[in-house]
Design brief:
This protein has about 240 residues and is an alpha+beta fold. It is built from three helices and 13 strands. The strands form two sheets. Strands 3, 4, 5, 6, 7, 8, 9, 10, 11 and 12 form a ten-stranded mixed β-sheet that branches. The longest helix has about 40 residues.
Length: about 240
């Protein structure tokens, strides 16, 4: 009987441990809440931060595209073919004061000479397309050529109102003077004196004149006959 009483009077188990577990859970609950808040706030903060950066960051400027520069092709103009020339020589007359001379002329010009050694007399004629250049030697007199600003002294050809240009030849400077006749252009030639700078006719190689047969000469033919005159050299 005593043994049964002792067993029946065994005290119940102490409930304290369960109370301790409950209090430990309560103490950890704020930490769990804070952890959850951190997990929620961090992604949201990152999202807002990225959104702000995307707003403040300037849009990338487009890279300009450059087209390749095309160099213009240069075509060289064909060089002009030199004009074929012929040579002519007119010997000096011993009886005349004129000098013998030589000249060059293009092959498409025609040259003739009328020469009489008994007189003596020589007429050299060069022609092309109605243009005629003549060089004449004979026993003739001479005269001065006066231009703007000159004072006439003795017999002279008055060119004070005429247009002229100077040509440098192989024997001296000639003044080519426009002397129209009957509405058609013509040219006379006076030579510059090396002593006083005055001009006179005839030249050292003879009387020279050129007729064109037209009112307005062709510049190309003009340049050709001027080149012929400039090529004249005394012998």
């Amino acid at each position: 009987m005593e043994q049964q009483n002792s067993e029946s009077q065994t005290p119940p188990a102490d409930p304290t441990p369960s109370i301790k577990n409950s209090s430990s859970l309560k103490s950890k609950w704020p930490l769990l809440v804070i952890g959850l808040l951190v997990l929620i706030i961090l992604p949201l903060g990152g999202y807002f931060l990225m959104n702000e950066n995307s707003k403040t960051q300037p849009a990338p400027s487009p890279t300009p595209t450059t087209s390749p520069t095309v160099e213009p092709s240069t075509t060289l103009a064909p060089s002009a073919t030199p004009t074929a020339l012929k040579s002519f020589t007119s010997p000096k007359f011993s009886e005349l004061g004129f000098k013998g001379y030589s000249l060059n002329y293009p092959t498409d010009w025609t040259l003739t000479e009328e020469r009489d050694n008994s007189v003596p007399m020589s007429t050299v004629t060069l022609t092309k397309a109605g243009y005629t250049l003549k060089i004449f030697q004979a026993a003739t007199g001479g005269a001065g050529c006066i231009y703007e600003g000159d004072i006439p002294e003795g017999p002279a050809s008055d060119y004070r109102n005429n247009i002229y240009k100077d040509l440098v030849t192989g024997f001296g400077t000639l003044r080519e003077t426009e002397a129209p006749s009957n509405g058609k252009m013509a040219y006379s030639y006076c030579q510059k004196s090396t002593s006083d700078g005055s001009y006179g006719q005839p030249t050292s190689v003879g009387h020279m004149n050129l007729t064109t047969g037209v009112a307005n000469p062709d510049p190309k033919i003009v340049s050709e006959f001027e080149a012929i005159i400039e090529s004249i050299k005394t012998l």
